[in-house]
Specification:
By secondary structure, the chain is an alpha+beta fold. The protein has helices spanning 3-9, 11-40, 45-77, 82-88, 90-105, 154-157, 188-198, 203-217, 251-279, and strands spanning 113-116, 119-126, 130-137, 142-151, 160-162, 169-178, 227-232, 238-247. The strands form 2 sheets. A 5-stranded antiparallel beta sheet has the order 4-3-2-1-5. Strands 6-8-7 form a 3-stranded antiparallel beta sheet.
Amino acid sequence: MNIIELIYQYRLLSTLLLTIVMIMVKYSLVSLVRARAKKKRQDKRYLISNIKNLLNFILIMLLLGFWINEIQNFALSIAAFAVAIVLATREFIQCIIGFFYLMSTRPFRIGDWIQVDGFAGEVSATDWIKSTLLEVDLHRYQYTGKTLYIPNNKLITSPIKNLNFLKRYVTHEFTITRDEDVNPFAIIETLTERTKAQCADFYDVATRYNQIIERRLDVKIAGPEPLLEVSTSEIGHTQIRVTIFCPTDRAIEIEQKIMSEFMDLWFAEYQKIKPENNAR
């Protein structure tokens, strides 16, 4: 009796042993990759995810090989209920189809920032059923500490926004609103110069990164020069909309500095015209 016949004779035991061995191999490989990635300070989540999915696929194929005859007999015996089974498991089937869709089209990779149905986050893992995202607040460009689990079938039926370029540099927009006591055009030129000064230390890098994005996307995007525009609100207040192309992790910090510069200029100008306002 050769080893193959022995395995088929004790299929239940072989299945158990094979499962244990594959789990141990998967755990060992993942631990090894994580240890090396931590030592070299590299992001290997993409490789880890592929290792897990590949070993799971191999395990499923081997188990199907062990039990193919029983599965065929079982399938024939429940042919009358096949439609009901498909309907009951259609969500899982769609998720598996969605996994193959993601693997073939590659709309994103592990580590990318994406947005799906209003939810945004960094892709940390993908498997046969779901994709795992670390939620990101797109208003402050920070991790919220929440984890999102998105079924793969959702990624087929919903638009996927790849926000990977936002991880390093972002076109950040914000609006400053004040009353109409001060003429904004009296301070806009000075505010523009001070805004440029706030962005001066990363201007060269921002220029190169801006050009890289434009070449890859074949579109023109805002930046790297700051842009300030004056408008009014619905109730007549003065609004200054500021657009800057800056490092993502510094966007809020730079916004606050520009806000401070604006307030200094606005109150200085207001003090000049204060007697006129009192007179009126």
